[in-house]
Amino acid sequence: MIRSPFRNAKPKLILCKVCKVNRVAKAMATVCGYECALKKVELDNLKKAAKREQEERAAHRVKKQAAKKHGEWEGDLQKLVNKWVRVVRDVNEPCISCGTTKTVQWEAGHYIAVGANNTLRFVLDNIHKQCHRCNVQLSSNAIMYRVALVKKIGVERVEWLEGPHATNKISIPELQAEIARYKGLIKLADKEVV
Ligand SMILES: [Zn+2]
Ligand SMILES: [Zn+2]
User: Fold this and answer.
1) How many CB atoms within 10 Å of residue 135?
2) Residue 190's pLDDT is what?
3) Which residues form a coiled coil (predicted)?
């Protein structure tokens, strides 16, 4: 008679993967019975659906980025540059034009308007924290803006802003690199505050 070497060995028991209450022999199954087996199928399907949805969303994001126009990238960068001016560089400064420290909403306003010169729209000397009233209702409050700007950066840099500028368009890859850089700067400043 041949004796199996496993004959007297106790089967190793593990907890059912679904209910985590009943024990099952590890060599036989991962769930304890019919009910838990059904539940496992359901859970697996949910996981699969969630994964598929995530993949679709990622694909959609890639497609959307690829279809983005130059002007949209410029808009994305502008938002970040303005935010950086408002919440990092000028965070402790009052409105550049009227000097107020209170407003319904802090904004970042251009001295030379974006519409007037596209190349100055990302130049930091040209962007400063402003109150909502000066930026929007007073269309930048330019005369008072200039007075304060001369004090802040000096007449030479103000006159440079006012001088002629070539209109060289920044390429999309360059805009993307700047977007990444400003995101990093804003994140860094957030951490320093905490
Ligand atoms: Zn179970
Ligand atoms: Zn103001």
Assistant:
1) 24
2) 83
3) 36-63
How far is Cα 36 from Cα 18, in angstroms, rounded to an integer? Answer: 6
Q: Where are the beta strands (DSSP E) in the chain?
A: 13-15, 23-25, 107-110, 127-130
Domain range annotation of the chain: 12-53, 70-193
For ligand 1, the distance from its centroid to the CA atom of residue 43, given in whole angstroms, is: 13
Q: Facing residues of 24 across strands?
A: 14
Burial class (CB in 10 A: 0-12, 13-18, 19+), 78: middle
Q: How far apart are CA 27 and CA 105, in angstroms?
A: 66
Kindly state the average pLDDT of the residues 165-176. 88
Return d(Cα 44, Cα 54) in angstroms, integer: 15
3-state secondary structure of 67: helix
What distance in angstroms lies between residue 10's CA and the mean position of ligand 1's atoms?
21
Q: Give the start-end residues of each E strand in 38-152.
A: 107-110, 127-130
Give the pair of three-digit tokens for residue 164: 């002629």
pLDDT band at 10 (very low <50, low <70, confident <90, very high): confident
Quick one: which of 140, 89, 77, 153 has its CA closest to 111?
140
Q: Residue 138: nearest ligand to its CA?
A: 2
Strands 13-15 and 23-25: antiparallel
